[in-house]
Amino acid sequence: MTDEPLLAVRGLEKHYPITEGILNRRAGTVRAVDGIDFSVRRGETLGLVGESGCGKSTAAGSLVRLEDPTGGEVIFNGGGRAGETRNADGTHPNDVTRFDRRELKAFRRDVQLILQDPSSSFDPRMTVGESLAEPLRVHGMSDRDRRRAIGEDLLERVGLSADEYDRYPHEFSGGQKQRIALARSLVLNPELIIADEPVSALDMSIQAEILSLIRELQAAFDLSVLFISHDMSVVREVCDRVAVMYLGEIVEVGPVERLFDEPKHPYTEALLSSIPTPDPRKSVGGIALDGAVPSPSDPPSGCRFHTRCHRVIKPADVDVDRSNWRGLLNLRDGIESGDVDVERVRENLDTAAGGNGSVEDEAVKRRLRADFDVDEALRSAEAERTLGRALDRVVDGDPEAAAGILAEAFTTPCERTAPDRTEHADGHESACLLHTRGEAETGADVGSGLATEPTQIGRDRPTDRAGTAGRSDPENRGEGDGDGGEGRAGGADGGDRRGS
Amino acid sequence: MGTQRSDRFDEVEWDEISRSRWFEPSRNTLGVVLCTLPIAVLGFYDWQVLGERTATFAFVGTEWDLGGIDYLFGFTLVLFAFYLVAPLYQNPRMTRYYWRQFKRNRPAVVSLGWLGVVFVGGLFGPLVMSAPEQSVLTGYQPPVFLSIDAAYVDAQTCVGDVVSGRCQGTWQHPLGTTQGGKDVLASIIYGMTISMQIAFITTTIVAAIGVSVGTVSAYAGGWVDETLMRLVDVVLSFPTLLMFLLILYIYGAGLGMFILIFSLFAWGGTARYVRSKSLSVSEAEYVMAGRLSGANTTQVVRRHVVPNTASSIITQLTLLVPGFLLAEAQLAFLGLGDSEVPSWGQLISAGQSDLSFAPWIVLAPGFVLFLTILAFNFLGDALLDALNPEAEAETE
User: Fold this and answer.
1) Which of A160, A303, A471, B377 is most buried when burial is the number of CB atoms within 10 A of its CB?
2) Domain boundary at B182, B214, B246, which?
């Protein structure tokens, strides 16, 4: 056997056009999946993790061609296609995106997808047996008795009894249906199974059963699995390698232990910090990501994570500490996008103060600073002056000018440059500017900081993050929030070095 | 398939199997084909070989003649038997489940019983009963237990006894006779055949066109969808009655033309319904699972989309039938019907001038018509409840 991967995804893209008007004028593009690379080796389980809406399921759908991808290639070396080399014109004979009908039908035998919601993945008007054996029928097995025998055998293998073949989906529980879904995905004896959030619709105890069933079947039939999930704890349990996806791009790939022990990308850090730990004394460094997930129709420039990154790079000439830096950028983005509504702030303060209609501009500014976690006085006098001028413009009702002032003074390299992949160790790669140019820009040892083992950092003032309520994504919000400024702690602040 | 047949999924020799023929008609389709063949052959024989006036079954010595409508009726019966009744029999669990749901609605069960009577009466009545015949001497016979003044039926023509100046009804004519002496009961039973023919044939035509247009529209999308839906608009707003009258006055129109015209302009609602239902079904994960298994669009539509829209169409079709029956009766009452066929409407129309002294001629078929229409409506409602998957989910 060669060491070529079973499935290699190269630059896979799925863009959806946004059209408007009666002429279907193309008004924009939703970049649901925007050039992802990963590979699945024979017999291994690769996890694909990320928040809801980051494009995981779209990626799965495009690589099995439920929807045709708009770019990239998916090279599948299974199904007796091993050892092929590229054609002269650069295309690959095993490229799934170029398969014709016949090849695609054969490909369907080798790769199966387990869908997320077991309650809707069975036709309510067919017995589960018929649903289970349908792939056999589709692929030409006309012998009804043989289909039934195979189906019953499979039902028993996934822990159900053969006489449940004639039952209807509504007669089963969610966990049982997911077992049957597993059986259905196995019925054509595939080499690769793509499991799209296979347990997220199930409750915890059932999840464990299904996961162990997947592992058993994988071992018994030598399957490769692409396991898609948003749940890091599940991924840790089942996967050999993990690819972390953010907004249509893969930000970090690595073997599961390395990635969990030494996450390199700040986003991975944030995801990991959201896993609850059973030890109450061990504080969880819940990194609350600021802001909502940006829209894939208008992704941020440069590194897509920079709008929410807690380690966003600060240019050397701006001397403020890290939480202030994040706050300044958020304030700038908020003013630019018009999310900062001075009148509303004024009204709220007025209501709180009793409603006599006299709220001073200073109070509004203080409120804005508090909302965006910016200190009353910044360390750097120059930065403080700039911020003061910008805030004056804001309360005067001229947000454009304020945005201009802020944009001129406070920019991060992250929004200008899209990071390349950096290889850290064997098969562990990440895409973050901290690793490619971190040393030069920040003068900090940025590689070793780990949010899972939080330590207090001297100069970082514990801030009250409750002030930003509603601005963090619930799916990734850490359990513990009582640890003051820990969440913001990272290595990007000038000279900070974390103890261990 | 080889000799080393294995019943384990991981030991299937797919290369052998997937090269074998992929087209495999289901048993039910096979049944339809086998049963339709003799009907078609008989029809062809009747049309080409036999003369205009020769009865179809003259070769076995009976006078029983078949017309075009009868062949169509036979074909639709075959379709219903194999695509509706046979699946119910083949999936006993599902049938029991539906029956449990259906049974909760008592009026619907009674309705089903009544429709069963009409169906059996319509199908076998004409085989065992002779057609009502004109006999001027026994006109206006009252139904059993009723009587009529001897001024209309005198002692000579009264079949029963004349008691104190009134002719008494007899069991010989349980529902009395018409002016021309036709037995009302026999006419009603012969009318059942007509009603069943209208019900079955229109349903089949409407379902066939509606389902095809609806699913094609949903799956093709784009300009095909747009064109078909505008066509539906046209069909829905078409003045069918005027069209029918026009044809009637120019060419003359029988029952066949009535069925054809009315069902060709009745599928609009069904198509629209099927389209919207197909669109929602095609988003379901089980359709995705079907595609993942390698099935092409046709297979997915046939196996998943149509069956899952069917339950809702059945209800809609059931509610469509009463409209046709009423329309036929109304046209007949206005004297625009096919006077050749003994429909209930014709019977009502025949009795309208005698309403004052012989009301049974109108009332008996009118009541039967009323009951049948009511039964269809009850049945439709109950089917909606029993077959509706959303309702299923709620009761689980």
Assistant:
1) A303
2) B182
Q: Are residues B66 and B118 in the same domain?
A: no
In a domain, B8, yes or no: no
Which secondary-structure segment (H or E) carries B389? helix B389-395
In this structure, are strands A249-255 and A241-246 parallel, antiparallel, or unpaired? antiparallel
DSSP of B334-352, one letter per residue?
A: TT-S-TTS--HHHHHHHHG
Task: For residue range B224-280, list pLDDT tens digits in order.
Answer: 999 999 999 999 999 988 888 898 888 877 888 889 889 999 899 899 999 999 998
Q: Do B292 and A108 touch (CB under 8 A)?
A: yes
CB proximity list for B32: less than 8 A, separation 6 or greater: B78, B79, B82, B83
Chain A residues lying within 8 Å of B295, measured CB to CB: 134, 138
Query: For residue B212, which phi and psi values (nearest 5 degrees)?
Result: -60, -55
Nearest to B10 among A123, A141, A189 (CB): A189
Are B12 and A112 in contact (CB < 8 Å)? no
Give pLDDT tens digits for A437-450.
644 444 343 433 33
Same domain, yes or no, for B205 and B262? yes
| Poorest-pLDDT segment among A110-119, A289-298, B162-171, B386-395 | B386-395
pLDDT tens profile B303-312: 888 888 887 7
Q: Are residues B254 and B276 in the same domain?
A: yes
The answer to whether B294 contacts A134, with C-beta atoms less than 8 Å apart, is no
Question: Does residue B279 sit in the same domain as residue B344?
Answer: yes
Residue-number span of the structural domain to which B300 is assigned: 103-132+189-395
A106-119 burial, b for 16+ CB within 10 Å, e for fewer?
Answer: bbbbbbbbbbbbbb
ipTM of predicted assembly, 2 dp: 0.75
Of B20, B293, B296, the CB nearest to A134: B293
Would you say the C-alpha torsion B16, B21, B23, B27 has a positive or negative sign? negative
Q: Let me know if residue B3 belongs to a domain.
A: no
Same domain, B300 and B207: yes
At the top level of CATH, which class does the domain A7-273 belong to? Answer: alpha beta
| pLDDT tens string B161-173 | 777 778 877 788 8
Partner residue facing B5 (CB), from A116, A146, A188: A146
